[in-house]
Design a protein that fits this description.
Its cofactor is FMN. By secondary structure, this protein is α/β, with parallel strands linked by helices. 35% of the residues lie in helices and 20% in strands. The chain is globular and about 40 Å long.
Length: 174
């Protein structure tokens, strides 16, 4: 399998911790992990398979490092790349903006031709009002983690999601 680049932005450490677990479960021999705060366009362009992790802040805003990186992200050509997304949010205190960061990244990346997204995730088991991270079938566009309200479910969700994206990758690449 090709090398996978995992890029995250984190203020509190939650998204970074999730990224580290994804790195572990995907396989440290086939993936590398990068803080978006220390990333440039060329770093991302090195990979054909990318996993982006973002948290949502305040009223549906991107984590600050992703917000700073957004102009660069818009310049990247994601043609023929495979993308998986994950995000952290608080479904109780920010129920009307739950994990919007995933949707914001998705809406930038999807503009490239032939980009393929993998790793959609069920919205069952979460309680929120609204999210830009939902697809037309009401599934999340990627893995959603709530370390504030459901920390006991995070590890199992990460394990299940990494198995899912490995299966999807094997199907696409073989």
């Amino acid at each position: 399998m090709e090398s996978i680049g995992i890029f995250f932005g984190s203020d509190t450490g939650n998204t970074e911790n999730v990224a580290k677990l994804i790195h572990k479960y995907i396989g440290t021999n086939i993936s590398s992990i990068h803080d978006i705060a220390n990333t440039n366009k060329k770093d991302i362009e090195l990979f054909n398979i990318l996993i982006f992790g973002v948290s949502t802040w305040y009223y549906g805003e991107l984590q600050c490092d992703w917000d700073d990186f957004l102009p660069t992200l818009k310049k990247i050509n994601f043609n023929n790349k495979i993308i998986a997304l994950f995000g952290c949010g608080d479904q109780e205190d920010y129920s009307e903006y739950f994990c919007d960061g995933i949707g914001i990244l998705y809406n930038v990346i999807r503009l490239s031709k032939n980009v393929r997204f993998i790793g959609s995730w069920t919205s069952k088991g979460y309680s929120f009002e609204c999210s830009k991270a939902l697809d037309k079938n009401k599934n999340f566009l990627g893995l959603v983690i709530d370390e504030d309200r459901q920390p006991e479910q995070s590890n199992q969700r990460i394990i299940q999601w990494t198995k899912k994206i490995k299966t999807e990758l094997n199907s696409l690449l073989n």
